[in-house]
């Protein structure tokens, strides 16, 4: 007896052939009943013998799909590795690659100097003590730049960095004519990439500027990487001592003027090591104070200043200088480090972070020595904070003292002070007053320096 599925169960049509057989018996089709094929009775839900079921078709479909996938992958690999014919499968480019190497633009070092020599392969400079300049002079600013980006082109490195400088006065406003965009630029394509770039800037300190603390705002632009950074550094302007000042109005001179300064000792011999030369404009009167270094012996010296313009017109001034043996604190400077041999690294703008150690370097000169070469002096230091009050932890009596046999030919003592701060110190400007008292002569002298905690 043939088993029959209930007509209520949904009909299944495994193949088109079954559909055709079933449609040959319209009555069975209409009643959803069994039909006859080759003498055998079937229901629509039953597959025809010898025909694939839906389950079988699914299995065969998966097998065929993966077979085509493997064949296709093999064909692609073969074509990829095959030597191209005309037209080529891949057209090689003739353009060079230009990757940009990014490292982070920064001011590695900034130093206020009395001059910067740019004639050699590497810049050299002379530190300006305490970053203090006289009104009417020039400030020289040396900057070492690192972290600029480079673009590799045909095996060479392209570097392009621009420096802007803006000077802010004691009131925080930009000083007239001292907004100096693109005052320095480095644009080179080089075989061997340098680790850093040197910049030097000469900043005129006009005669009409007031005394006080100024800020140099340095902005660097990396033209390759599109990055810019700014840093601020402090310096001080003070009035020159007018006692031996040479004032020249250039009444007979025009255009650019060359100034030669010659010094002569008490015997009238020229001191060639002190010779100087400057270039100024006849439209900007020159105020210049020739001085004799304090390590020279006491006596009467002279200075001859020769002014020459482009047309050969000349004016000459002569002044007499007297060098006295007076106790002196000289070359006071704030540093990031002072070595055991007293070489030091200037702290740019005397700006520190709260918690840093404040290093102070200075020199004591023209102290008294007895016939045995004995030297005796003592240092006191007082520091006031932004509120004007004395900071006890940065102040001390007898901080440094000398009471020793010493060579009578030595004219200078180098001194290093170390002042630790903490992170809870008030931010702002601190004033340090150093007093040296010579126990043999009874003389005292003082020198002030300003540093900033940020």
Give short descriptive properties of this protein.
Immunoglobulin-like, 9% helix, five-stranded mixed sheet, seven-stranded mixed sheet, disordered N terminus, 3 domains, 454 residues, mainly beta
What does this structure look like?
There is one protein chain. This protein has 454 residues and is mainly beta. It folds into three domains: 100-238, Immunoglobulin-like (Sandwich), CATH 2.60.40.3880; 245-323, Immunoglobulin-like; 328-453, Immunoglobulin-like (Sandwich), CATH 2.60.40. It contains three helices and 28 strands. The chain has helices at residues 16-23, 26-31, 54-81, and strands spanning 35-37, 40-42, 100-101, 106-117, 124-127, 132-134, 138-146, 150-153, 156-168, 174-190, 197-204, 212-222, 227-238, 246-248, 256-264, 276-281, 286-288, 299-309, 314-323, 328-338, 344-346, 351-352, 357-365, 374-384, 396-405, 412-420, 428-438, 444-453. Strands 3, 6, 8, 9, 10, 12 and 13 form a seven-stranded mixed sheet that branches. A hairpin with a 5-residue loop joins strand 20 (328-338) and strand 21 (344-346).
């Amino acid at each position: 007896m043939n088993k029959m599925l209930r007509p209520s169960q949904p009909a299944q049509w495994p193949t088109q052939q079954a559909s055709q057989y079933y449609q040959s018996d319209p009555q069975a089709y209409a009643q959803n009943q069994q039909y006859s094929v080759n003498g055998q009775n079937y229901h629509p839900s039953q597959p025809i013998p010898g025909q694939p079921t839906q389950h079988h078709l699914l299995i065969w479909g998966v097998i065929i799909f993966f077979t085509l996938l493997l064949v296709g992958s093999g064909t692609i690999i073969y074509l990829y590795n095959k030597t191209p014919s005309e037209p080529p499968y891949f057209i090689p480019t003739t353009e060079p690659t230009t990757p940009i190497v990014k490292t982070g633009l920064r001011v590695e070092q900034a130093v206020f100097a009395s001059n910067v020599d740019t004639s050699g392969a590497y810049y050299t400079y002379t530190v300006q003590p305490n970053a203090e300049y006289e009104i009417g002079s020039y400030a020289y600013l040396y900057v070492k730049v690192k972290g600029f980006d480079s673009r590799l082109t045909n095996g060479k490195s392209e570097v392009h960095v621009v420096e802007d400088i803006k000077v802010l006065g004691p009131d925080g406003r930009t000083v007239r004519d001292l907004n100096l965009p693109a005052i320095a630029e480095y644009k080179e394509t080089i075989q061997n990439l340098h680790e850093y770039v040197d910049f030097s800037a000469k900043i005129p300190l006009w005669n009409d500027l007031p005394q006080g603390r100024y800020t140099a705002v340095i902005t660097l632009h990396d033209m390759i990487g599109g990055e810019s950074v700014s840093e601020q550094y402090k310096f001080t302007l003070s009035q020159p001592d007018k006692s031996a000042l040479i004032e020249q109005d250039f009444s007979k001179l025009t255009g650019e003027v060359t100034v030669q300064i010659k010094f002569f000792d008490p015997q009238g011999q020229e001191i060639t090591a002190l010779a100087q030369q400057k270039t100024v404009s006849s439209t900007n009167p020159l105020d210049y104070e020739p001085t004799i270094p304090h390590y020279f012996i006491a006596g009467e010296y002279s200075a001859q200043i020769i002014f020459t313009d482009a047309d050969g017109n000349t004016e000459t001034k002569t002044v007499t200088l007297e060098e006295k043996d007076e106790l002196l604190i000289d070359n006071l400077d704030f540093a990031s480090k002072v070595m055991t041999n007293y070489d030091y690294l200037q702290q740019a703008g005397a700006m520190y972070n709260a918690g840093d150690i404040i290093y102070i370097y200075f020199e004591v000169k023209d102290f008294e020595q007895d016939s045995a070469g004995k030297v005796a002096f003592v240092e006191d230091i007082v520091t006031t904070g932004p509120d004007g009050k004395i900071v006890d932890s940065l102040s001390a009596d007898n901080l440094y003292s000398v009471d020793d046999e010493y060579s009578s030919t030595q004219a200078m003592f180098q001194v290093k002070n170390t002042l630790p701060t903490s992170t809870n110190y008030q931010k702002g400007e601190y004033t340090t007053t150093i007093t040296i008292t010579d126990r043999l002569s009874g003389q005292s002298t003082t020198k002030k320096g300003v540093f900033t905690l940020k």
